[in-house]
Design a protein that fits this description.
This protein is an all-alpha fold and 265 residues long. Helix content is 63%, strand content 2%. The chain has eleven helices and two strands.
């Protein structure tokens, strides 16, 4: 289902705003109907699962959500607070609410520490990335919208602009791969990549600044990124998968060459 499209009214036969819904005919007479705020929270969760909003995105304001769902802002506010308490949302500085991934913060910190300073662990992570991201590149070639393809090409031009400051290498590289994750059309995969944001960012930082800094490696990455994006834009899943495999495979080879103990038998 395309993002932002709902198949039906999330509140069918909605009573007047904030009026409790009638008890279900199949429920017990003493069962309390769901509060409006609970139904708003359930609807938002369904939209998260459908990919209407992605991790890192801001939700519409309370007023807009209230109008969309035909409820009061009080009910929307209560629903948002409930979802914040459960770890789905967080308040954004300056106003608004942002959707989080399934956080796993402690896991992310532990994995980041394992990768930093260990070539063997870094190589293992890159091999796992290759398995995941070759799948994502194939899916992106199948599912990317014209708008996403245009964004990928524009981002590639910005990322590999020779005037671009070197300090942005890590963030740019990660952003490009996250755009491919989004273009895959899989909300599960996108959430997974957001969960691993810090550890993947640390891995890229180690690679781009501490292990392979230099124009030769940068040129290789640029050529690989171009091949990946060209294949996705051509809607060629086999070529996109192969281009991503060769890109991450080359990085793995560079890592293991720096430390033969990291190479697999």
């Amino acid at each position: 289902m395309p993002r932002g499209q709902m198949t039906e009214n999330p509140f069918p036969m909605q009573p007047t705003p904030d009026q409790p819904a009638a008890p279900n005919a199949h429920s017990g007479e003493n069962e309390r109907p769901k509060r409006v705020a609970d139904r708003v929270a359930d609807t938002l969760l369904a939209r998260f699962a459908a990919g209407d909003y992605l991790p890192g995105e801001r939700l519409p304001g309370e007023r807009q959500l209230a109008e969309d769902m035909n409820v009061s802002r009080v009910s929307v506010r209560a629903a948002l607070q409930k979802l914040k308490t459960r770890g789905y949302l967080r308040a954004v500085q300056g106003g608004g609410t942002e959707l989080l991934s399934s956080t796993g913060i402690e896991m992310d910190v532990a994995m980041t520490d394992l990768v930093r300073g260990s070539i063997t662990n870094l190589a293992d992570l890159m091999e796992l990335r290759r398995t995941l991201e070759t799948w994502a590149a194939r899916r992106a070639a199948e599912n990317a919208t014209d708008e996403q393809l245009a964004e990928l090409r524009a981002t590639f031009q910005q990322v590999h602009d020779p005037r671009r400051a070197a300090k942005y290498r890590t963030e740019d590289d990660h952003r490009l791969h996250m755009m491919i994750a989004r273009a895959s059309g899989s909300i599960i995969y996108y959430h997974l990549m957001k969960m691993l944001h810090d550890v993947l960012h640390t891995a890229l930082d180690e690679i781009r600044f501490h292990i392979f800094a230099g124009p030769q490696f940068d040129n290789m990455v640029q050529n690989h990124h171009r091949a990946i994006i060209d294949a996705i834009a051509a809607r060629d899943p086999d070529r996109a998968e192969q281009a991503m495999y060769e890109h991450l495979g080359a990085v793995i080879n560079h890592v293991t060459e720096r430390n033969p103990k990291a190479a697999k038998d």
